[in-house]
Amino acid sequence: MMHLLRKELSELVTRQMLISLVMSFIIISMLGSLMTNVLTDEFTDYGTVRMIDQDQTEFTQQIIDKLQEDGYTVQTASDFTEGVNQYHWSEATLLPEGMTDLLLVQHEQCQVHSYTLLKTTSSVSLSMMGDSSTQTVVNAINSLLSDEYLQGDLDFLENPIQTVPYTQANNRTVQANPSLILSSLSLFDQLMPLLLFLLVVLTAQTIITAIAAEKADKTLETLLSSPVPRSTIIGAKMLAALIVALVYALTYGMAFLSTVVSTFSGNSGSVDIGETFSEVVATRHYAEELSLQIPFMGWVGVLAQLALTLGITLTASIILGALVEDSKNTQYASLPIMLCTMFPYILSMVSDIRNMGAVKWLLYCIPFTHTFIATANFRFHDLPLFFGGLVYQAVFLAFMVVLALKLYSSDLLFVHRSIFAKKKTTENE
Amino acid sequence: MTALDVQKIEKSYGKKQAVKGVSFQIQEGEIFGLMGMNGAGKTTILRMLATLLTPDSGDALIAGHSIVKEPDKVRAHISYLPDEAGAYRSMTGEKYLDFIAGLYFKDEAEQDECIQLGKEICGLGDALSRKINTYSRGMTRKLVLARTVMTRPALAILDEPTSGLDVLNSLDIRNTIKRCAKEYGTAFLLSSHHMQEVHTTADKGAIMKDGVFLAEGTPDEILQKYNAETLEQAFERAVKGE
């Protein structure tokens, strides 16, 4: 076994693979500091209000003063074009001439103008610009007008109703915002599926490519006609692919983790993200109160599902790799595994699979689904679903191992082409 | 002593019968050449004897073991070289021989002896310390032939051993086969499109068409049967039914 394992590893661990691994680590880690810089810029930008004051009255000056008192940096220009050319504005709010007269003398409604420089097709970027900044100015004007026209308890009039958030889970209730509680859990819950996805895809591609290459070079025929049990040959291939995939997953995982940490611990201008992160950590006790924490045995169960998922991936890849005609088709062969991983991964990210009606049963048939929802099953005490998934995965793996052994001991490995393309085989025989 | 005894072996792919009840024997140290056009059934026979395919009916005994009932035992006595087989390109030639020796022998002394024999047979010298992806086609072929015979199998099964090689490399390979048969008593079963190769290398041979033997015997016996001067002529007359 060790003899074969060494050979499999020497085939998989190449200089190119190591270079790609190191480069991936560096790129993903660099992404962390890049994201911190981008976020810093975004938050700095978020604290800046750009105004064109064409009214130039005492009231408009009060608006600027109020915004500065509220912590905003106010930039002004004579018109939008000047702001764009000189200060690289992408949006601004214009206070038109006569605005003060309309509001304070004639007591009529007036308009402020919101300018946006269109320079991207990114809807996300667009949604972050313009309107919210103008709304900040409008809020400042409304506040000043309230001071002018309303006497008495202004705080009460401005905020007559306050919301107190309550979150319930596992028949327990705490006074806390649900998004804050989720954010304290999501670091691992989001990282784990990502790592699992990477692990499954990398393992599948690694092993399918390796077997396809062995078939193309006909070294597989040499190996299978040697006095080594087929189970040992398959086992060595699976173990080597598992080791390589784990190295990949750990490298990517550490790089992603460093990205997350550097992003959340960065200081970004007027808004301290580090403080926000600390707040997230401080809310862990809410998760404990709601019994959302996973016990030690729960983590063991999650790891067991992870191991079973990898086992299924490895055996499925060994089967698919054996059916590949040539090494150029490996990406098609790995497609079924990628799709079976991608659907539960994406759906578990955007929705709760357990409440998906009839579709959930279809997803439960995919053994990988159970690993993607493993942490949720433990957090929400859905143990029958967790253990049901675990047993299903174990049975599925046993079935796949038997299938792989049968395939590697049968004629199908060498004659499957004759089933799909009789003419080609006839020529070769 | 009989190294291979094939008994009415048959194999079909769906409705197509690739091998139809073929029987033949190869003695220890004997070289047997299978001649036939593409699709005649040569590779199917070789793959069945290499335990990669299971016969539909019939059997073959290799060193006394049945390929149907005891494929695991058979594998310890055979060595198979597929048509245009390569080797692990990221390994050096020496590592490759070492890897193959490890598959056949657990004892280190036996492994070392096997590797030494492989090195001597392939004759690649210092090139063995280079990676296989730097080898020419001829060098790779010499290496894989060496790994096939270095384990001293009872039966070496070679599918088109000189295909795609130049004259000198082909000659080297043929001489190695003859030498190993003589010195180590290895029986060889080889398939070939080159009649001259079979004539100069094999002790016996057979002409195949549509899964059956049209003729079997020594090259001289086949020539005599078809009243031909060369094996090519005999082959042409056999397959055309003249």
Quick structural gist:
Chain A has helices at 2-12, 15-46, 58-69, 80-87, 99-105, 123-127, 131-149, 154-158, 178-217, 219-224, 230-265, 273-282, 284-289, 296-322, 330-333, 335-350, 359-365, 367-372, 374-379, 383-408, 412-420, 422-428, and strands at residues 48-53, 73-76, 91-95, 113-116, 167-169, 172-174, 267-268, 271-272.
Largest interface (CB within 8 Å) is between: A-B, 32 and 40 residues
Q: Work out the radius of gyration of chain A.
A: 30 Å
Q: Per the principal axes of the C-alpha atoms, what is the gross shape of chain A?
A: elongated
Largest sheet data of chain B? 6 strands, mixed
Radius of gyration of chain B equals 18 Å
* CATH architecture assignment of the largest domain in chain B: 3-Layer(aba) Sandwich
Mean pLDDT across all amino acids of chain B: 90
Distance between the termini of chain A: 33 Å
Number of domains of chain B: 2
The main sheet of chain A comes to: 4 strands, mixed
What does the average pLDDT of chain A come to? 79
Order of helices and strands of chain A: HHEHEHEHEHHHEEHHHEEHHHHHHHHHHH
Tell the overall outline of chain B: globular
Topology, number of strands of chain A: 8
CATH-assigned homologous superfamily of the largest domain in chain B: P-loop containing nucleotide triphosphate hydrolases
Q: How much of the polypeptide of chain B forms β-strand, as a percent range?
A: 25-35%
Low-confidence stretches of chain A: 266-277, 418-429
End-to-end distance of chain B: 36 Å
The class by helix and strand makeup of chain B works out as alpha/beta
Number of separate domains of chain A: 2
Structure characterization notes:
The complex is a heterodimer of chains A (429) and B (242). Chain A contains 22 helices and eight strands. By secondary structure, chain A is an alpha/beta fold. Chain A has a four-stranded mixed β-sheet with strand order 2-1-3-4, with helices on both faces. In chain A, strands 5-6 form a two-stranded antiparallel sheet. A two-stranded antiparallel ribbon of chain A has the order 7-8. In chain A, a hairpin with a 2-residue loop joins strand 7 (267-268) and strand 8 (271-272). Chain A is elongated and about 100 Å long. Chain B is α/β, with parallel strands linked by helices. Chain B has nine helices and ten strands. Chain B starts with a strand and ends with a helix. Chain B has two domains: 2-77 and 153-240, P-loop containing nucleotide triphosphate hydrolases (Rossmann fold, 3-Layer(aba) Sandwich), CATH 3.40.50; 86-151, no CATH class. In chain B, helix 4 packs antiparallel against helix 5. Classes of the chains: A alpha/beta (429), B alpha/beta (242). The A-B interface holds A 3-4, 7, 10-11, 14, 216-219, 221-229, 410-411, 413-415, 418-419, 422, 425-429 and B 13-14, 16, 18, 38-44, 47, 50-54, 72, 75-76, 78-91, 95, 99-100, 102-104.
